[in-house]
Amino acid sequence: MSTTQALRVAAADGLELDVARLRADFPILSREVNGKPLVYLDNAASSHMPRPVIETWEQYYTTIHSNVHRGVHTLSQLATDAFENAREKMRGFLNAREAREIIFVRGATEAINLVMHGYGRAFIGAGDEIILSAMEHHANIVPWQMLCKEKGAKLRIIPMNDAGDLLQDEYHSLFNERTKFVAITQVSNALGTINPVKEMIAYAHARGVPVLVDGAQAAPHAAVDVQDLDCDFYALSGHKMCGPTGAGVLYGKADLLNRMQPFQGGGDMILHVTFEETIYNEIPYKFEAGTPAIASVIGLGAAVDYLNGIGMNRIAAYEQRLLTYATDRISAMPGVRIIGTALHKAAVVSFAIDGVHPHDIGTVLDQEGIAIRAGHHCAQPVMQRYCVAATARASFAFYNTLDEVDALVDGIRTVQEMFS
Ligand SMILES: Cc1ncc(COP(=O)(O)O)c(C=O)c1O
User: Fold this and answer.
1) Helix boundaries (H) for 95-218
2) Atom of ligand 1 nearest to the CA of 139
3) Of the residues 237, 239, 350, which should be mutated to test ligand 1's pocket, given the most ligand atoms within 8 Å of the CB?
4) Cβ pair 225, 95 in contact under 8 A
5) pTM (2 d.p.)
6) 74 Cα–ligand 1 center, Å
7) Gap between the terminal Cα atoms of the chain
8) Which end of the chain is more exposed for a tag (fewer CB within 10 A), N or C?
9) pLDDT value for 70
10) C-alpha 414 – ligand 1 centre gap (Å)
């Protein structure tokens, strides 16, 4: 569902977010930083956990902690059930066809590396080409660069315009008989751009090319349907969607996963081992070597329940309201420039203040209790495209408020006064 559709759905059901009530679920949001109430606007880096997720984590360690898939004893079976239950929850969240298409990894970075090793090293060779976009996070650049170096393959980059929209004609013109893979982000962490990935996937598929979607910045903010997108792979990080750190997901179509090589070798990913050879386990276990982040995965399942309880369409609609308000207010400030003005955006506002280094912006705002990110956002090619070393970035979640946007605007004024 597009954001515009999501807005319509939320408006039609007449249900608003009760943000004050939701905020009460997040213990950290009531703390102070530097003597001021915390205004947390660094959600693209990592979001916070509500009580039900923290309690699930605690309950796991205090009542059922044990290793999964290995024991006949009661605790191991309970832990395995909870772990596999989280897989089923994630299947539902992404609308994957089957639970075995959900692989638990550490996060989006590991998910993309898994595809590079498991698919890329097997199916991409010398002279082949991989298409990426100009707005990828380093997690969706560096692994492919490593593969190109190893195999003698080549990266082709979809350019973007000044607003931060990918140029679709240029994308189309990159395809040729050597094109073997496309890896694109659904939402840019540095600019907020929402890319038309469904159409981009259809274009690649019409030419027989599989597509990985980096959903790290999309899955926390709108409903995702991997069957509707028809993506071949989808990567996400649990800690950006109210889950604990250490757990993320790679979705992959079962037929592709079955044809891929394992990423890591070890326990759990095998059916039978001799010194002569190993028979690998079935998916998803083939890709889950060693003891996983059990508590984090179970916590991520609780985060899925929590987000579903609010409704992803409602979250998307509310965050659009935050984005519109923040964009209107910040773009009206003299001496402040928003970087990333695409028509379809998630609630990310990257900005620059004339004559002030982004790190100074971040430091002064921190004194006001406002947490934003200042830097290259692990997207240095985006910085190069805009000829800046860094930007300041406010990124919103459903628990942020319009008052917090006002606090940010006041904070920016304080920065300007200090450096005038
Ligand atoms: C678009 C995008 N992809 C990938 C990642 C990597 O996520 P992680 O560090 O959780 O693996 C991030 C993190 O910010 C991101 O924004």
Assistant:
1) 108-115, 121-123, 142-151, 168-174, 197-205
2) 4
3) 237
4) yes
5) 0.96
6) 36
7) 45
8) C
9) 79
10) 31
